[in-house]
Amino acid sequence: MSSTLATMSASDRDPARSAEAEAAQEAVPEPAADAGRPTRRWSRALVAGTVVATAAVVAAHLAATFLYNAPANPVSQKYASQVNTWMNPLFAQNWQLFAPNPISENVELRARASMSADGRITQWIDLSAMDAAQITDDPLPGQVAENELRNAYFSWAESHDASGNPTTSDGQLLQQYLENVVIDRLAPVVGGQIGSIDIQATITLLSGPGRTAKQTAPQTDDLGWWIVQSSPGAAS
Amino acid sequence: MTAADTGAEISEADRSIAASGAAPRPVPLARTDRAWLIKLAAGRWSACYEAITTRRFASRGSAVLRMGYGGVWTLFLLREYGERDAAWGPGSAWSPAIDRQYAALGHWPGWLSFWFTAVARLTHTEYDLFYLLTLALGVAFTVGWRTRAVSVPFAFTVLALENRAPLLTDGADNVIMLMAIYLLFTACGEHFSLDSRRARLQAASGGGDREQEQERQPQTAWRAELALARRQMATVVHNGAVLVIAAQVCVIYGTAGLLKVQGSMWQNGSALGYVLRLHWFQPWPGLSGWLAGHALLLALAGYATVFLQIGFPFMVFSPRLKYPALAALVMMHVSIAVLLGLPFFSAAMIVGDAVFIPDRVWTAAAAALRGPAYARAMAEQATQSAAGTETEADRALPQPPTLVFDGDCGFCTSTVRWAEKHCRPAVEFVPWQHIDDLAAVGLTEAMVTRSVQWIPAGRTGVIRSGAAAAGRTLLRSRWPWRPLGALILTPPVSWLAALGYRVIAANRYRLPGGTPACSVKNRP
Q1: Which ipTM value was assigned to this complex?
Q2: How many other β-carbons are positioned within 10 Å of the β-carbon of residue B403?
């Protein structure tokens, strides 16, 4: 059995050779579990057709999976549109887990609100500390505390330029998302209708080989005041 | 030598063995004419075709994947139950409006857009009901209730819920979504399921019922033929899906490893030091901080991670390297679960690794879990099948497994008495001094004086000694000793246990109940 599975993964690298490799492993096949087998021509054709169709789909899927995950190369560039059509969104995947380099900076997010009723500006509220307090000492951290703020901020940062203008087609949408995420955390603390928000990111490069003290000093990036169109509760 | 060279060499060797029949002997080159080669190729092809149409590879392995992913998903839903509205409900920061716009940007086919935005269209009450339904489907899938039918709505709800908030997901969600789709095509309900239990009970009690049913509905020839063809077609699709699952696991490790090689921080060994200082992934800041101070250890762990991930797709080919690699991966995932606070991701990856464990291991594991009663029944079966004739069957009473110990050693004897009293294993304890002919059961005096020896049920199979024998005894004991036995037999604990056993055996004359006769060295 183990050798069979090894054969199966072998074909991932070269699907065309899988039949030969499998044949090499199957020199001594186990007896079939059930004695009965189709004998008529039409039923055997059905089985043979399934074998051909399955082999074709599996080969195509393995090839697409490989090209989708491999670094850009002439083959994956030539078939980029076909591969993406096949893989997205059903088989979308990303295995860049802390690779090529892990994140090596801590980003602390804080925000303040301007109340729509009287224009009062609240204190800075440390959103990252709120999440950290929930995660700490929890063997099963929840996704909202662990992933939401980080993914929302990094997706926003990747889709906007230095002056805060969207650079991708989903930029606006991602800004709305970050706004909602921040308001979800601010609203219970400040109370009342929020008119606009101000988000500040403090980025601290972690100390390490080849990094000077100047580089690892915290840097603050203010995203500016965003006018809140509608509270997330009202949006739904 | 390249991998291709080795492959060619192996298949060449295979061919010569196959050509010469059971006893391998050199094949003269002159005889390898073309007709013979064609015949051989045809034979190979038909053997391969036979295998993929009749054998279900990883039949129990896919059942373990079903239980694993169903279980991880169910626990995940229970964990997020209190935050279900903030995560995927109408009150999510990824508002229904954002969800619709995002789906529109994807330019997906209509049915996919409908599927992925389905949850965003639900009201509060509908969403709560949907969440409960998803939970119920997770449980039903895990226990294998009407598996074929349940696997479809299971996959539907998993993908619908996960795609409700695409930016909330991490690696765990990615793995579970892919596997939910792949498992649709496997026969993952055939073992370890309520379905298999029902089939077993029906076969045991209602064999007559089925015949009656057949009489009531006389099967036409083509119907019977179609049923046979359908079973084979299901087998073919199952095998394809298992291949895709195994390849997918290899792609995950291979991609993660090869991408790390390109990173300067993984090259200079500083990567894990950075990861442990990230505030986003610090459920235990004290522990992370303490570990971050050990640069040397972290550099070694980082290198080990990269080598393991890149090597895994190749190591699974080698029966010798496979199990150490899997054990190392499990340790890696446990560290990720604890240190980085990603328990569901780690669990999802460990479940995926299980596809590489052969079915015979799952069979043995299931037998061990069923416990002493099952072991006794198996021992009886083994004896009955081993005894060919009536007289032999009369003579050979059901033989449970036997643990041979040193009856002269006070420490050994008191340990055995203690085990008989507390663990109550379905194992026969015999001092080697009571065995007339040691060689007849495959033992020597050197073996039995050095350590305890385990003779499997029915006196057939491999004899184990030391910690492996003790672990097998515990495995056939009553609760709670059984899991301890399983632990002792599992690497890397098994290596430590073997070492520990040797230390105790070497010093047993010093231990309570020990007598000079216990000394391994001072035997007459």
Answers
A1: 0.82
A2: 22
